[in-house]
Amino acid sequence: MLNRLVLVLNCGSSSLKFSIIDVKNNKKIIFGRVESILSSKSYIIWSANNIEYKNILKKNITYSSALNFILNNILKKDIKLFSNITAIGHRVVHGGSKLINSVIVNDKIIEDITDASCFAPLHNPINLLGIQCALNVFPHLSNKNVAVFDTSFHTTIPEHAYLYAIPYHFYINNGVRRYGAHGINHQYISIQSAKILNKSLKKINIISCHLGNGASISAIRKGICIDTSMGFTPLEGLVMGTRSGDIDPEIIFFMYKKLGISLNEIHTILTKESGLLGLNGVSSDCRYAEKNYYTDVGAKRSIDVFCYRLSKYIAAYNMLMKGKLDAIVFTGGIGENSSLIRDITISQLSVLNFNIDKECNMCNTFDKYIYIHSKDSLPILVIRSNEEWMIAKETISLLNLKHVHE
Ligand code: ADP
Hints:
The protein is an alpha/beta fold. It folds into 2 domains: 5-149, 2-Layer Sandwich (Nucleotidyltransferase, domain 5), CATH 3.30.420.40; 198-383, ATPase, nucleotide binding domain (Nucleotidyltransferase, domain 5). The protein has helices at 63-75, 79-83, 107-115, 124-137, 159-162, 169-174, 183-196, 250-258, 263-272, 275-280, 286-291, 297-320, 332-337, 339-347, 358-361, 387-398, and strands spanning 5-11, 16-22, 27-35, 43-48, 51-56, 85-92, 103-104, 145-149, 206-211, 215-221, 224-228, 327-331, 369-371, 380-383. An 8-stranded mixed β-sheet has the order 5-4-3-2-1-6-8-7, sandwiched between helices. Helix 12 (297-320) packs across helix 14. 44% of the residues are buried. The structure holds adenosine-5'-diphosphate. Adenosine-5'-diphosphate is lined by residues 12-15, 212-214, 241, 285-287, 290, 332-334, 337-338.
């Protein structure tokens, strides 16, 4: 007998994740992901009843087609399952200045999310596609779609950390400030860290490194976020798959005035052609850079810049913990899988008492979490990200359904 099911859609910058969570038993009934959307090698992997399926998708598949494939070829194929879906939770990257907490989707909310697209031009439009698609396929659940924002967790960041040192009126009149992103997973990581370290959430002090195609780091003190690396948009901060992260803004004027590159092209360069891809010239996929680190100068370069920037942020955020840091946590596709990135990053932090246990660090086949520090080190954890669980939890609590426990 199927219980109440929540469909969670997480449309990311290069992948689309979905899961159906059984609220009563807190089980993922089906979960999967479409990888390499808009490229020549898109594929979908999903698991149902512990059986894994894989399908190669047509070249350059769009987000809408990928979503339709999931909804029509996987979910609708099992009518019993399909008819037991009672709510849909959506990851939305940016709530802008208006949407602070999770909300039930309606026309006004769709308008507000559209307005906030200027803060996350690569993400919000994709998140909206997911919402529109769900509204079309599940018309009977039109008032049971919940938007959960990646910016919500960062609303506790103090003014001195979220303000840019530009004329203040840009903040007051135009909302120019640091908003952060990846908050859904940073929040999940703080909840899980508290459980793993056996501390109350209100007392947990961690540095959460979410390293995926997009990457960000958050300083979480006493369970709340006090600083994060992404800013006005998800372009600021760490080196990412194709995004530059921090740069001197003068580079933009140099490209525009001296090199005659248009503003649109510069935007494309910084968001889609930079990061690991820009530095190694071949791939934004960390697996490529990791595999070729010792043989290819470009691959090495891209990983070295990635790790140097990350270790600088960790060192700075460590200072915000006032000597009471409980753990550094790695999460996200790279954080969970790249032993090399973790090793190089932590090796630059030994002066702060962080040291890797080489053997533990090589293990990437753990279930939910693993410790990777040596005996003489402060704790370093790797925790599998689970944005879907966090989104389901928010969805059912907002719709007053039964609570999800993990
Ligand atoms: P997003 O949700 O931002 O699209 P993910 O958190 O799924 O990204 O992470 C995707 C990234 O994880 C890929 O770009 C890839 O570089 C990296 N990744 C996945 N598996 C591995 C692995 N085994 N080793 C190194 N990196 C990996």
